[in-house]
Amino acid sequence: MTRRGLVPSAAVALLDISLAFQNVWPTPMIRWAGELSVECGVFLILVIAAQLWLGPLSRTATRCLAAAWIVLVVGHYADVTTPALYGRDINLYWDVRYMPDVAAMIARAAPLWLLVCAAAAVAAVLALLYAVFRWAIARVAAAAFDPRERAPVFMAGVVIVGLFAAQQFGFHFPTEPTFATPVVVTYARQARLVAGALSASKTLPPSPPLTADLAQVRGADVFLIFIESYGSIAYERPDMAPALAKGRADLAAAIRDTHRDVVSAYVESPTFGGSSWLAHLSLMSGVEVRDPETNARLMTEPRDTMVTTFKRAGHRTIALMPGLRQAWPEGAFYRFDDIYGASRLDYRGPEFGWFAVPDQFTLAKFDALERSAGSAAPLFVFFPTISTHFPFIPTPPYQPDWTRIFDEHPYDGPSIVRAYAQQPDWTHFGAGYVQAIAYDYATLAGYLRLRADRDLVMILLGDHEPAAAVSGEGAPWDVPVHVIASRPQILDALSAHGFRAGLVPARPSLGKMHTLLPTLLDAFSSR
Questions:
Q1: How many Å from the N-terminal Cα to the C-terminal Cα in the chain?
Q2: Is it the case that residue 485 has pLDDT exceeding 60?
Q3: Percent of the residues in the chain that have a pLDDT greater than 70, as a whole number
Q4: How far is Cα 505 from Cα 494, in angstroms, rounded to an integer?
Q5: Which residues pair with 324 in a beta bridge?
Q6: Which of 129, 304, 321, 388 pairs as cysteine with 210 (C-beta 3.0–4.6 A)?
Q7: DSSP-assigned letter for residue 417
Q8: Distance between CA atoms of residues 39 and 176, nearest Å
């Protein structure tokens, strides 16, 4: 091939690769393994034929085609990368509406210079892609008027489309190319999701009966603690479970030493890798909530929940929300008696992760505030933790002396230096995940020892598995649930429902998360 022939060939290859790359699992990186793009083949045919019929492309048309090509490339990138990072396909109808919240969260946590650099990098990449695609499209278009270039470019399109069509009709050859999923199929799927969501029935399933008398927890403080990203991989991944054995053993010892016992099981979360609020609402309402539309619709209905059930039984109901920094409309739906957000906790120590406040401080400060309030009613506390939130590090050091947690300098110098020296490994999050879960194990064990004399029922469960970049390919959606108590009748009732003694859950899972609510209320009520 002559040097002149290499130029249109390079343009064709670039356009094909831009719509046929694969993900380098489980990272945001991409690679090309020889796949072909049927959209590229169709484009080659059309751009040659249209110009022979209508004349050369104008500069405006070339610019528009380059911009449209970027839209296709971005759609393909999202399609191949989202499953690797989050363990699920992208759903633009649901996901886009939460992008401002994610952006705001990142803006609060990241320094300004990093945000500016990131924005500049994104702008530079888009500008570079636009320039490259504009050149490639213009070069392919120019081939239409050179007989020596026109035939190879046009035939490349015919061969690509022909082989793709043959495969769709079941014809196969000894050596045949692999085709990337057409991007138009990706966008068509998103359009169907939008149409399905907009036309969804307004009827939601009824809540389970929430008339339990809660006699078995009368007078006890009940903590419902959702441990962020606490999934079954903490027990079943061979590269993680052994590293967490000591932390679990220490938690088990704290339970035993404070004259409590624990039973455990698995339940299936309604979400994976994020959207924790879907798990929260599913459990506390007893209605399965797997998408934001169901979440929003359910919030418009005056439903009884786990919160109102405890309220009727005489408990003071509290949402302990260290990650809450803005209005929380869900609080009105749940009807909590009180809400402790980040501003009320008033953490002024070293910051860790996107949400800044260590879980140990949250529990300690909550205890101090509640003691000063002087309420005699037993508590129901809903507490979604934040120290195990992605990207997991820097992880707060655990402070064995809980009296120091309110100090201006709550940690010793070497421990804070070690914590801040950690940086996320964006290709391997496992070590940081293990460290964060171990920290929460230590925090919970310390709290149980600190409140050894407290009549306490503690429900610990995961909200979802961590993102696929951590949990691995094909990870189940199951999360552990533990119930810790000094009241044997509660634990015996849960054992009858399929829980097993100890901190290690057993397969199979009990069922979906929303079905756990009737099980818990039954165990907490008169036999």
A1: 85
A2: yes
A3: 89
A4: 13
A5: none
A6: 304
A7: H
A8: 18
Closest CA to 289 of 267, 269, 308: 269
Helix axes 38-54, 147-168, angle to 10 degrees: 140
Whole-angstrom Cα distance, residue 513 to residue 519?
10
Of 230, 307, 228, the residue nearest 264 (C-alpha): 230
* pTM for the whole structure: 0.70
What's the gap between Cα 523 and its chain centre?
31
Cβ(264)–Cβ(234) below 8 Å: no
Q: 456-462 and 261-268 as β-strands: parallel, antiparallel, unpaired?
A: unpaired
Q: Give the Cα separation of 11 and 34 in Å (integer).
A: 16
Spatial distance between the Cα atoms of 161 and 179, rounded to a whole number of angstroms: 10
Q: What are the DSSP calls for 261-282, one per residue? A: EEEEEEEE-S-SSS-HHHHHHH
| HSE, side-chain direction, 13 A CA sphere, residue 140 | 32
Report the C-alpha gap between 329 and 331 in whole angstroms.
Answer: 5
Mean residue pLDDT across the chain? 85
CATH architecture of 215-523: 3-Layer(aba) Sandwich (3.40)
Q: Are 152 and 28 in contact (CB under 8 A)?
A: no
Q: How far apart are CA 455 and CA 451, in angstroms?
A: 9
Q: At what angle do helices 3-18 and 59-86 cross, to 10 degrees?
A: 50
In DSSP terms, which residues pair with 338 in a beta bridge?
A: 318
Task: Please state the φ and ψ torsions of residue 152, each to the nearest 5 degrees.
Answer: -65, -40
Q: How confident is the model at residue 190 (pLDDT cuts 50, 70, 90)?
A: confident
Q: Which residues of 225-258 are buried (b: 16+ CB within 10 A; e: fewer)?
A: bbbbbbbbbbbbbeebeebbeebbebbbebbeeb
Reply yes or no on whether the pLDDT at 372 is more than 90: no
Task: Encode pLDDT of 263-305 as tens digits.
Answer: 999 999 999 887 888 999 999 999 998 877 777 778 777 888 9
Residue 229 sits at the vertex; the CA angle it makes with 455 and 289, to the nearest 5 degrees, is 90
Q: What is the DSSP letter of 215?
A: G
DSSP 61: H
Q: Tell me the torsion sign for CA atoms 424, 426, 427, 428.
A: positive
User: 3-state DSSP call for residue 2?
Assistant: coil
Query: In 110-176, which residue ranges form alpha helices assigned H by DSSP?
Result: 112-142, 147-168
Q: What residues does CATH 3.40.720.10 cover in the chain? A: 215-523
**Chain segment 375-429, per-residue pLDDT in tens:** 788 999 999 998 888 777 788 889 899 988 888 788 887 877 777 777 766 667 7
Q: Are 284 and 381 in contact (CB under 8 A)?
A: no
Q: Which residues pair with 263 in a beta bridge?
A: 483, 501
| 3-class secondary-structure state, position 316 | strand
Residues 83 and 25: their CA atoms lie apart, in Å, by: 9
Instruction: Report which of 468, 482, 474, 487 is spatially closest to residue 510, judged by C-alpha positions.
Output: 482
Task: Spell out a b/e string for 61-73, using b for 16 or more CB atoms within 10 Å of the CB, else e.
Answer: ebeebbeebbebb
